[in-house]
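cron nightly-structures :: item 1 of 1
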Amino acid sequence: QNKLLLVATERGWGRPVGGQPSTHILKIDDQRFPGLVSAEAAALRLARGLGLGDLDPQLHQIEGVDCLIVARYDRLRAADGTIGRVHQEDSCQALGVMPDAHRGRGKYESSGGPTFAQIASLLRRYSADPGDELDRLVRVIAFTMIIGNADAHAKNFSLLHKDGTIVLAPLYDLLSTTLYPELSPKL
């Protein structure tokens, strides 16, 4: 999926340069899979409604192309307007797994990538409230299966670092891939 990093400024959208943190991600609809950004927006809204995400997806049309703009969950805006990063790691980073291994498929469990059991082990060991985090992980797994998101790889499950502990990040990069018969239905 085509993506572009954006930064919201007082004058509108810009591209982050020189180490400036991005604030949003722009995704462009794919001609091979029409409606992809609308389907992702619907999945993100559903996750938010179920308390599994906090992203507010915005659909826009730019020069006749459907686009999705999503605010980053790992950014904080200070009172003076500066943008700060919240430390986060995707599951591959947290577990030391190379996502590019196995011909770029190392992020998938079926190709040796991280498993939900390994993610659960991290939550058990490093979160301040393992019971709540493990419960949330189970709900995330169930949601992923129910919406038919066969592209739920380890780079789409992240951990936020807060006060020396970790929490499971809000769901992001969601799509019901089963809506597109040409995509693999294998979870």
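cron nightly-structures :: done
The chain has a mean pLDDT of 94.
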